[in-house]
Amino acid sequence: MVPRIIGIIQARMGSTRLPGKVMMNVAGKSLIAHQIDRLRRSHHLTGLCVATSDLAQDDALATHVEALGVPVFRGSETDVLDRFYRAALAQQADIAVRFTGDCPLIDPTLVDDLITLYRTAAPPLSYAAIDVARYPRGLDAEIVGMADLRTAWQEATEPFEREHVMPFLWRRPDRFRLNWLSDPTLDAPWRWCVDTEQDLILVRHLLETLLPVKPAFGWRDADAAMHANPQWALINRDVVQKTLPPT
């Protein structure tokens, strides 16, 4: 049986550093619409879902996503693991791929490579992710099967394990088999996620430059644009990525 592989985008309006960022308009579309358009080019995803909170402040986001033809699941703002798990259940997923709504430059080919890595591993993996220590941050994706996701949902108790969905798995390599899609030859230190106004300025440059000439551009096209415009790297070089507690 062909598994249902569902991409679940976590998104909400209540970002602390850049509120409402997922609905901000760049190059004629919201950031979340750009991300959805790019993920729809994946050959391996069966479908997409946006998982947002059940707070009134996310009503407009839910309406916008539904108008784009993507199902929405609404749940706890703070227990994101519960929201993500229930969204996967609602979509009858066999495998769930996690994205965050602040990554409008997500690369569908890289996502397909991650899915292939997960599905062809022997022995089977519990979890795999794109290695953003090598690839630009903003290409983030994580993949998990429903049995292991259910285990995390049932057993995780620490607040940050509920808030960030996957740490219960990757903090326990003795229990779960883990892998990362990586390339030791890469040196692409860019930051393409949108957490701050500086991030937004950079992503706007990339989208407005690349979309008119190559609407289905990939991450290597964006990397080439960064090298062609070295001043762009200065825009958000001082933005500090929020970190999770150590393993």
Automatic annotation (TrEMBL):
InterPro entries: Cytidylyl_trans, Nucleotide-diphossugar_trans. Keywords: Capsid protein, Virion. Pfam families: CTP_transf_3. One of its GO terms (cellular component) is cytosol. Gene3D superfamilies: Spore Coat Polysaccharide Biosynthesis Protein SpsA, Chain A. CDD domains: GT2_SpsF. This is Spore coat protein. It comes from Niveispirillum cyanobacteriorum.
